[in-house]
Each structure stands twice: as structure tokens, then as C-alpha cells.
Amino acid sequence: MSTPWGQGKGTFEILLCDIDAFFASVEQRDRPEYRGKPVVVGGSLSGRGVVSTCSYEARKYGVHSAMPVEQARQLCPGAIFLPGDTARYRRVSREVFAVYDRFTPEIEIVSIDEAYLALPPGEGVAAAEEIRRIVREELGLSVTIGVSVNKLLSKIASELAKPDRIGQLWPEQVERVLWPLSPAFLPGLGPISVEKLERIGIETIGQIAAAPPGLLRKYFGKNALTLQRSARGIDNRPLETVREAKSLSEEKTFSTDLADEEVILAVLISQAESLGYRLRSGELRARKVGIKVRYADFRTITRELTLPAPTDGDRDIYEAAVRLFTAHKGRPPWRLIGLRVSDFVSGEQLSLFDLLPSEKKEKELQHTRDRLRERYGGSVVYRARRLLNSSPGGDD
Ligand SMILES: [Mg+2]
Predict the structure, then answer these.
(1) Distance from Cα 113 to the centre of ligand 1, integer Å
(2) 115 pairs with which residues across the strands?
(3) What's the 115 CA to ligand 1 centre distance in angstroms?
(4) In a domain, 396, yes or no
(5) Distance between CA 29 and CA 140 in Å, rounded?
(6) 3-state class of 204 per DSSP?
(7) Which of 38, 289, 361, 371 has the highest CB neighbour count under 10 A?
(8) How far is the CA of 68 from the centre of ligand 1 (A)?
(9) pLDDT tens digits for 6-64?
């Protein structure tokens, strides 16, 4: 069904476009011998680090992203393990986003493979069908698209439709479709919150919607209101097209408490790469970098620092994150790690002549590395290891 439904004033329909198993799909597209096989991208030859993406064939074995690679090897020893090629994935990502651009200028880039698009009411489903066709025919990739009236519902619609389909979830379907589902389907609600809900007897989204506000407030504090509104399908967050954003952030909740600091650092690297990518795609640089850490006792802190100069570089962001994490890491295990950049400046980069000699050297090195990566392909993890080895927080 396609009900044109604009929320309130009927301003927009929102699409969440999510490339299916992105890194693994690019590998399978470019190497026919990988097709139909379990492919796991991430980690390193030594087997440490976390899974970035895995193909649907690997998911059948229980492998999923953010899982330690070691565990993925145990679940699926026959899989093809690849370190990944960030430069190539970025190029493909830009090609996919260029397709979205043909449909609307209102695009919020969420990550290298996910974006929200806003379209006029009544045009969402047709645009989604056309986008899927073009991305498949021109780029050989499948995209799952959720269509609704806000970011929350379009995200859930896409989760329910995965892979390779269009999903719709309109406000009048919330009660029938959303309410019977587990709270785990609410974006941003981590496994620990889901357990907390279970302990107070709440096992469906409908029960959250119907819960006495006081009960939710007791367990979720100031997040209780947002939680209940989400359960009712309400979400007034505007699209943050990169140029209008005040900050960009990435956050990872761990399904089990994590005690391995190296895994935390690997997550920070991928978050720094994603944030750097989003900054560069919006031609922005950030003055501030902040981290969010949740400890084993649920205490959550945020800390930020101001950089000596605004940056859009993955490495600058990562190094600031490591400085902050080293200073505030407390004791393992950790439950959540987040990274945020803010206080943006836009416009021209400094010319090489304006830089201090040491900055100039780093800039030139980065140009050389980028050229080498373009030519020979790069490895997420090779780079990650180098970063780890050279960072003050790296312990190996
Ligand atoms: Mg995806």
C-alpha cells in the first residue's frame, strides 16, 4: 500500500536508504569467486579487531558486525576473511550518494552506507523504487529502503524489510505492526536497556507505549519521554543535512560488556573514519572532539577537547579520542563508546604555506598515503594497526 502521509503539515516523506551488507557486497560484486560465499570484512591477519560487515551467507552462521573477528572465525571458519579497502568503499559510497542526489537535495548522511532522504508527500515510494533500480543496474548493489513520515519509522521500516526490499511503515500501522515487536527494534535502544525493560515486565514496544510515565522515568530518567514517544512512532528530529548539523556523532553499545581495550580502540578508529568521512563530504572541519563512555556500573560520562586547529582528518579525530579515552577510561569492562565532533567551520582548507612545518609534513604524508591507497588499494586494518602502534594509548 502507499498512503501519502505527511506528518502534521504534510511536509515530507522520509526515506532511509541502507546498502545491504555494504563492504561485503562490494567485494562480492568485484570478485565473482566470492559470490554465494560467507565473506567477513574487518579485523586483521592476526585475527584481532572487530567485524565491519559480513555477507548474508556469513550471517547464517551467527556472524554479525562489531563482533570480535576471533569469534567470527570460530562460528564460521570457512569464511573468506578480508581486511577491507576503505578507499574503494568510499568511492563506491560516493557513487551511490550521487544517485540519491538526482532525487533530492535534502540528504542526511548517516554513515558510509546509510542516508536519509526527504521527498515531497506522495513521492516517497516511487522514488524508492527508482533508486533501487538505478543502484542495482548502474552500480550492481542492492539497497534496502524504508519509507515513512519520520526518521524513526523509516529506519524501522528498513530494518523490517532487509535485505533488498522496500519497506513502508505509516503512522496508522504503528499499533498493528510496531507494537507487537520487541523493544530491541527501537533504534538506539541497546541490549542493556532491553534487559532493563524485561526486568520490569516490558517485552513489547506496545507495552512501552502504554506504560505509566512514572515507571519509565524511574528506570530511564530523562530519556523516558523520548522512549515512550518513539514507541508511539513519534519523532520530530529534523534531517541533518551535513551543512546544517551542529555536531556529528557515532555510538556503539556492546552486546556484552567489553574488557578488551584494543577492541575499544578499533571501534574508535572506525568511528573516527566515519566522522571524518561525513565532515569531508560536507566540506566541514571540526574544532571539538568528544567521547562518551559508559562504564560497567552504567555511569556515563562525556568529555571533549578543543583541537589546536579545526580538522576533517580521521587521524586527528582518532588521536583526540584516544587522548580522551586514556584520561577517562576508568576500569574495564565498558558498555558503550561514542565519538562526537562539533563546533564546525566551513570553507577553504588552509593552504600548505599557512601550516607549521610539522603540520605541513603530516599533510604531505597524508597526500602521499592517499595517492598510494588510490593506486594500490588500502586496508582499513593495516592503517588501523599503524594508528594503534603510533598512538599514545596503543599498548602494543
Ligand atoms: Mg547497510
Answers:
(1) 5
(2) 17, 109
(3) 10
(4) no
(5) 7
(6) coil
(7) 289
(8) 19
(9) 343 457 999 999 999 999 999 999 999 999 999 999 865 455 688 989 999 999 999 99
The residues placing their C-beta within 5 Å of ligand 1, an ion, are 18-19, 22, 113
**CB-side neighbour CA atoms (13 Å) of 208:** 34
Buried b (16+ CB within 10 A) or exposed e, 304-333: beebeebbbbbbbbbbbbbbbbeeebeeee
d(CA 168, CA 95): 25
How many Å apart are CA 248 and CA 335, to the nearest integer? 21
How long is the chain? 396
The enclosing domain of 152 has a CATH number of: 3.30.70.270
Q: Are residues 11 and 119 in the same domain?
A: yes
| Nearest alpha-carbon partner for 50 in 384, 357, 386 | 384
**In-domain check, residue 236:** no
- Report the distance separating Cα 149 and Cα 98, nearest Å: 23
Whole-number Å distance, alpha carbon 95 to ligand 1 midpoint, is 15
Task: Write out the residue range of the structural domain in which residue 289 sits.
Answer: 242-390
Say how many Å lie between the CA of residue 299 and the centre of ligand 1.
31
Q: How far is the CA of 289 from the centre of ligand 1 (A)?
A: 26
Characterize the bridge pairing of strands 334-346 and 247-258: antiparallel
DSSP character for 27? H
Amino acid (1-letter code) at residue 217: R
**Could you state, in chain order, the average pLDDT of each consecutive group of 10 residues for the chain (396 residues)?**
37 95 96 96 68 94 90 94 88 91 89 92 96 97 97 97 96 97 92 92 97 93 93 92 79 84 90 85 88 92 94 93 95 93 72 50 55 42 38 29
Same domain, 182 and 163: no
60 DSSP assignment: T
CB 136 within 8 A of CB 17: no
Residues with catalytic function: 114
DSSP β-ladder status, 143-148 and 166-168: parallel
Rounded to two decimals, the pTM is 0.66
61/138 Cα distance (integer angstroms): 31
Question: Ramachandran region of residue 216, left (φ > 0), alpha (ψ -120 to 50) or beta?
Answer: alpha
CA of residue 347 to ligand 1 center, whole Å: 30
